[in-house]
Structure formats: C-alpha cells, structure tokens
Amino acid sequence: MSQARLMDGTALARRIVERTAHRAAELTSRTGVRPCLATVLVGEDPASVTYVRMKQNRCRTANIASRHVELPAETTTARLVRTLRDLSADPSVHGILLQHPVGDHIDERAAFEAIAAEKDVDGVTFASFATMSFALPGFVSCTPGGIMRLLDAYDVDPAGKRAVVVGRSAILGKPVGMLLLARDATVTYCHSRTRELSSVVREADIVVAAAGRPRLVRGEDVKPGAVVIDAGYNAGNVGDVDFATAVERASLITPVPGGVGPMTIATLLEQTVDAAARQLAG
Ligand SMILES: Nc1nc2c(c(=O)[nH]1)N[C@@H](CN(C=O)c1ccc(C(=O)N[C@@H](CCC(=O)O)C(=O)O)cc1)CN2
C-alpha cells in the first residue's frame, strides 16, 4: 500500500487566518472597534508560555488586539474566577482564553464557567459543550473544531464511519467525539481504563489520538486506509501517533508539527472575530 497523504494544517490555517484578518479589518473600519482577545495565563509553564505567545503573535497577523493577564502560579480559584468575571464584564474584550493547564490546586472547571458564554471563543464552558453536542450555533473547542475543518477540507465525511477517539479530556477528547457524533459517525471513546486498546483502534475508519501519550498509536494499530488525526502536543513536538509506521497504513494523516496545532489557533482567531461581530451588532 502507498504512503498516506498528509493533511496540511499549516496551509489550511494560513488561509483561515488570512480570511479572519480581512473580516477583522472590515469590522474595525465599519464600527471603529478592533476585535480583542484576552489571554489569561496562570504560572510559568514553558509550553503554556509558548502557546500563549503564539496566540498573541497570530492575533497581530489577524488584525485582532490582544490583552494579556499573567497570574502567579499560587493564584487561588477565587482570584482566577474574579479575573475572568471582570474580563467577561468588560465591553472592550470580545473573547477570553484561559490557558490550560492552570495547576492542580485550582478548580479549572469553576474558572472556565466564569467565562461569559458569548466570549467563550475557546469553547471550554458547559454552554459551549452543549451547543457543540447538539450542532447548534455557538463556539466549538478550538482543537476539535480545527480537526473537523481538516476533515472537511480533505473530503472526509464522518457520516456512517467508525470513529475512535483515544482520550477523554474536557477540551479535546470529549468534544471531538461529540462533534463527530453530530456528523453521524459511530463514535467510541478509549481512555486509560480501556482494555485491548489496539484492537479497538484497529476497527476505526477515523482515529483521533488525543491522549497526551507520545507515539501511543502505532502503525500496526491502524486499519489500512484509515484517516489518522494526531492531536497530541507532547514535549519536543512529538504527537500521540507513531508517524513513521502509521503513515504506511493510513490513507490520510496529520503530521506533528503542521497538522492539528495550527488549526487550533486559527479556530480561536476566527471565533474571536465571530464573537466581536455578534457583540458589536448588539
Ligand atoms: N485553553 C486552552 N488550553 C490549551 C489548548 C487549547 O486549545 N485551549 N490546547 C493545548 C495547546 N495549544 C494551545 O493552547 C497548542 C498546542 C500546539 C499548537 C501548535 O500550533 N503546535 C505547532 C508546533 C509548535 C511549535 O513549533 O513549537 C504544530 O503542531 O505545528 C498550538 C496550540 C493545551 N492547552
């Protein structure tokens, strides 16, 4: 069998960011207001610092203003909730992103729920999970939303396909499964307690690897011709899929880097302009 075709997230994300930049500029010239994303970072985890910086840089490219709030690692849940409520009430801020993770002593769910639904451009609140799950208008979680855009761009219709999601995190595994279900895939979730992971993954027409475990999904686990989405972002730009072996069995595969990652940020920017447009329309 020939090698899988690569799903180029960098190129697709660039097109989305270009379109978003035009929309943002048009909105600003029409209303006099620049769309604004507030990023909130707790602590100094080097990977999180890098991701937040990437988001701020990409905001500049997309004609979006960014405001950054840095809180010390020892910040309490109450202080973080207050910060997010203040940003939610600030009319000059249109979108809010709380960088995950926030530290084990913080109730991350309580913090996410302090983000106003209309500013939840990262798609992390229960309200967004509900709209995603029922395919209603609203914001999607950024990596899951980016994955669906990649599938569409490569003409992969999830309807009737068997999709296996490896991982069940609140901002990645769970929502991507719900988005696939909303598009009529037959979805199975795997997680740390799943027995015989390899044999479950081998059934999949679409595999989404989102467990945060480097090279967990190996080529021998991939059904020949399957679509393999690697949503892993482990240290050293290593994904959750063993690319070298999976590329020999899949029909389509996302690389790391250059696959899902850039789509995460493109989706965030696009949803920030969506949020600003809605808020400025009244
Ligand atoms: N509140 C959130 N926190 C986190 C999210 C999220 O969507 N919302 N996702 C991840 C990490 N993440 C964004 O925050 C992220 C990870 C990786 C990339 C990316 O573009 N990676 C590049 C490679 C980067 C490099 O060259 O250093 C790639 O894959 O090509 C973007 C965003 C955790 N937290």
UniProtKB/TrEMBL annotation:
<keyword id="KW-0028">Amino-acid biosynthesis</keyword>
<dbReference type="InterPro" id="IPR020631">
    <property type="entry name" value="THF_DH/CycHdrlase_NAD-bd_dom"/>
</dbReference>
<feature type="binding site">
    <location>
        <begin position="167"/>
        <end position="169"/>
    </location>
    <ligand>
        <name>NADP(+)</name>
    </ligand>
</feature>
<dbReference type="InterPro" id="IPR000672">
    <property type="entry name" value="THF_DH/CycHdrlase"/>
</dbReference>
<comment type="pathway">
    <text>One-carbon metabolism; tetrahydrofolate interconversion.</text>
</comment>
<keyword id="KW-0368">Histidine biosynthesis</keyword>
<dbReference type="InterPro" id="IPR020867">
    <property type="entry name" value="THF_DH/CycHdrlase_CS"/>
</dbReference>
<keyword id="KW-0554">One-carbon metabolism</keyword>
<comment type="similarity">
    <text>Belongs to the tetrahydrofolate dehydrogenase/cyclohydrolase family.</text>
</comment>
<keyword id="KW-0560">Oxidoreductase</keyword>
<protein>
    <recommendedName>
        <fullName>Bifunctional protein FolD</fullName>
        <ecNumber>1.5.1.5</ecNumber>
        <ecNumber>3.5.4.9</ecNumber>
    </recommendedName>
</protein>
<keyword id="KW-0511">Multifunctional enzyme</keyword>
<dbReference type="Pfam" id="PF02882">
    <property type="entry name" value="THF_DHG_CYH_C"/>
</dbReference>
<dbReference type="InterPro" id="IPR020630">
    <property type="entry name" value="THF_DH/CycHdrlase_cat_dom"/>
</dbReference>
<keyword id="KW-0378">Hydrolase</keyword>
<comment type="subunit">
    <text>Homodimer.</text>
</comment>
<keyword id="KW-0658">Purine biosynthesis</keyword>
<dbReference type="Pfam" id="PF00763">
    <property type="entry name" value="THF_DHG_CYH"/>
</dbReference>
<feature type="domain" description="Tetrahydrofolate dehydrogenase/cyclohydrolase catalytic">
    <location>
        <begin position="7"/>
        <end position="122"/>
    </location>
</feature>
<dbReference type="InterPro" id="IPR046346">
    <property type="entry name" value="Aminoacid_DH-like_N_sf"/>
</dbReference>
<keyword id="KW-0521">NADP</keyword>
<dbReference type="InterPro" id="IPR036291">
    <property type="entry name" value="NAD(P)-bd_dom_sf"/>
</dbReference>
<comment type="function">
    <text>Catalyzes the oxidation of 5,10-methylenetetrahydrofolate to 5,10-methenyltetrahydrofolate and then the hydrolysis of 5,10-methenyltetrahydrofolate to 10-formyltetrahydrofolate.</text>
</comment>
<keyword id="KW-0486">Methionine biosynthesis</keyword>
<feature type="domain" description="Tetrahydrofolate dehydrogenase/cyclohydrolase NAD(P)-binding">
    <location>
        <begin position="141"/>
        <end position="279"/>
    </location>
</feature>
